[in-house]
Design goal:
mainly beta; Cu-oxidase_C; disordered N terminus; about 500 residues; six-stranded mixed sheet; 32 strands; binds CU-O-CU linkage; Immunoglobulin-like; oxidoreductase activity; binds copper (II) ion; seven-stranded mixed sheet; about 5% helix
């Protein structure tokens, strides 16, 4: 990771000219927030829910006078929202119409290693890869994106990513106290940033030590977006899909009611002022608006990890607008969520106590482009996890830059950060966690139950330039007493 952060000094985010596709409202300067379509699925005779995704090249108009070449699943940019239920069998057929190898990884999903879609499951141009698994986790907002070793950052940057909602028996039906009408009061908010060249193409050269930092914010692919709420309460499922940038999300003029974190709903909703989201992290919040009210969801300047200099860390000295939310004066209806929740018993998800006595303790240290002093090696198994083991991981970022850590096929709860209790927004189920320089993050990890001694899962920094540079390691899940390896994968065989 070569530091070129000096080049970021004084670099400011700009408001860009916006698309004029007829969707503009609010003084003509904003566009209606695009909502990714729900993926169509067929259900097999045996009940398996089948999705088809095609990674393809397209053209998207982000700026008013130019087209941008973009990549997307089943469209020009981004991807449809997949949705499945706990206990359901799922099959996704992913076709690669790009001219290079890609993969499709289901971030946050517990599943067999051969379905994980990491670097050991390449999809060659023109080929279709099939992933099959049974959903064995409760309601959560997960996502999917490419994970080819060495090219993950550019594949995601060019536009390949989408959401994957998991429902369970308590969610998505009439009995669910949470707003759950997709695109109406249950809204995907996929936040990312891009830099453009004068001809409208994505600038893939604007690199910092963190990775590519763009000067234009996209939400679901929309520049300067606005969303018109038709109800008193709107649930926002916010994903930081940026390859490098961290956001500190706040509602200007209001608080956020936290209802979910990366890997599940929280036990009890709590009001929070601002939420830090490093790349790959998600949060679910409820926002309340009075009739006639407009509020801005924005990102505050922050100093995370980068030498304490605000603009170097966040690329901005001023708050960044993410999404304008407004409710027409004529809209009727009162907030109902907290009343519905109270009558449903007051909790959204099971409480998760820290482990009394973990079965296994593991140490993860992070250095410049390395984990535990080693760069990623596709042929090396770094850790061996026994199925069902309750593990405590001690993660220490020994580098001076900000990093984070994501673990595949797992969810975890944070026990402590630098010896202190985690903030409210870090107390629920997680699969990705910010790793501040020089501090230790302690987590209790719960892995999926599929075993395969020959095929690894990944854990890595989710700042994708760092991941591509080798800040990634591999683990297998084995049965008790089973030996791990050698790795048998199409990638390490040739
Ligand atoms: Cu979202 Cu291993 O990645
Ligand atoms: Cu990193």
């Amino acid at each position: 990771i070569t530091a070129t952060i000096a080049g970021l000094g004084g670099w400011r985010l700009q408001q860009r000219p916006i698309r004029t596709d007829g969707g503009a409202v609010s003084g003509g300067s904003r566009s209606t927030l695009q909502i990714p379509p729900l993926a169509e699925a067929t259900v097999d005779a045996d009940g398996t829910r089948v999705f088809e995704l095609t990674a393809q090249v397209g053209s998207t108009q982000f700026l008013y006078d130019t087209q941008t070449t973009t990549w997307g699943y089943n469209g020009a940019f981004g991807g449809p929202t997949l949705r499945a239920r706990e206990g359901e069998s799922v099959r996704v057929e992913v076709t690669n119409e790009l001219n290079e190898v890609t993969t499709a990884h289901w971030h946050g999903m517990k599943l067999p290693a051969k379905a994980d879609g990491g670097p050991h499951q390449p999809i060659h141009p023109g080929e279709t890869w099939t992933a099959e698994w049974t959903v064995e986790q409760p309601a959560a907002t997960l996502w999917y994106h490419p994970h080819n070793h060495g090219t993950t950052e550019v594949h995601v940057y060019r536009g390949l990513s989408g959401l994957f909602f998991i429902d369970d028996e308590a969610t998505g039906t009439d009995r669910d106290p949470l707003p759950h009408d997709y695109g109406v009061d249950d809204i995907p908010v996929v936040v990312s940033d891009r830099a453009f060249l004068p001809d409208g193409s994505f600038d893939e050269t604007h690199r910092s030590a963190a990775g590519m930092l763009g000067d234009t914010i996209l939400v679901n692919g929309t520049v300067n977006p606005t969303f018109e709420a038709t109800r008193a309460e709107t649930r926002l499922r916010i994903l930081n899909a940026s390859t490098a940038r961290t956001y500190r999300v706040q509602l200007d003029g209001g608080s956020l009611l936290l209802v979910g974190t990366d890997a599940g709903l929280v036990p009890e909703p709590k009001r929070v002022d601002a939420i830090t989201l490093t790349p790959g992290e998600r949060v679910e919040v409820i926002v309340q608006l009075e009739p006639g009210e407009t509020k801005m969801l924005r990102s505050l300047p922050h100093t995370l990890g980068l030498l304490g200099t605000t603009e170097r860390a966040s690329g901005t000295r001023d708050p960044l607008d993410l999404l304008e939310l407004s409710r027409p004066a004529t809209s009727t209806g009162e907030p109902v969520f907290e009343t519905l929740l109270a009558s449903a018993g007051g909790t959204l998800a099971a409480v998760i106590p820290p482990l009394d006595e973990p079965d296994e303790r593991r140490t993860v240290t992070m250095q410049d482009a390395k984990i535990n002093h080693r760069r990623m090696n596709m042929s090396r198994i770094d850790e061996v996890v026994t199925v069902g083991a309750r593990e405590r991981w001690f993660i220490t970022n020994e580098h001076f830059l900000a990093h984070n850590l994501h673990i595949h096929n797992a969810r975890f709860r944070i026990v402590s950060i630098g010896g202190s209790k985690p903030a409210i927004e870090l107390q629920g189920w997680k699969d990705t966690v910010y790793a501040p320089p020089s501090r230790t993050v302690v987590i209790d990890v719960e892995f999926g139950t599929a075993t395969d001694p020959h095929l690894p899962y990944m854990f890595h920094c989710h700042m994708l330039q760092h991941e591509d540079q080798g800040m990634m390691a591999q683990f297998v899940v084995v049965n008790p007493g089973e030996a791990a390896g050698p790795i048998i994968s199409p990638v390490t065989q040739d």
